[in-house]
TrEMBL record:
Keywords: Membrane, Transmembrane, Transmembrane helix. Residues 1-36 are annotated as: Disordered. The chain crosses the membrane at residues 42-63. This is SAF domain-containing protein.
Amino acid sequence: MRTSEKPTGRVPVNAERPGPASTLSGPASRKLPVSPRERKPALAALALLLILGGALTTTLLVLRSGDRVSAIQIVRQVGSGQKVPPEAVREVQIADTGIDYVPFSQHRSLTDKDNDHYAMVTLLPGTLLIEGMIVSSDRMNSGKAQVGLSLKPGQTPGTLEVGDRVQVIHVPGRSAGDQGRVLAENAQVDRVGGGGRTGSSGQVTVLVDSSIAPTVAAYASNGEIALTELPGAR
């Protein structure tokens, strides 16, 4: 008599068991969405342009630094309205930056004693000369008038030189009882004649505004003009 074998309920060793992936279904088995990375092409392009611009500027500066021009440097102070003497200039080599420097090749015509060019402003040592600092006598004396003064001792300093800056003062006579007043705050000494016997008087020509020149001349004819020097205003 045969007995039938009943299944024991055991799972065979080699039987495949369902894995975790096979047991998950639905939303849980899907990956979470990832937002795409934001890109800003305009900012990237701007950054690239700035980098290229900086590199180009640096390159140009390096290249231009090798370009040199010969210029005039002032080594001795020259007062406003004075001519530039030869000993007041020297040659220097500077980078060509496009500024309108006076080339050293013109220094002979500039410093020649017979030229009619004058310093427009006071030129200090170390100054690099540019075109606007030098003017012709016509432009320098525009609106000015020369007034000759015959001064007595006590009416002028004994150390006046051409180019000095002075105050022109009206000094009334004792009988008038008036106080002196300044006629010209900053006049320029144009010429200095020979001194008198005392060494402190003589002929002095000053440049003043043409509007007050008649007044200065009238007081000068009466001996009522005095000059005071303005040190440091050359």
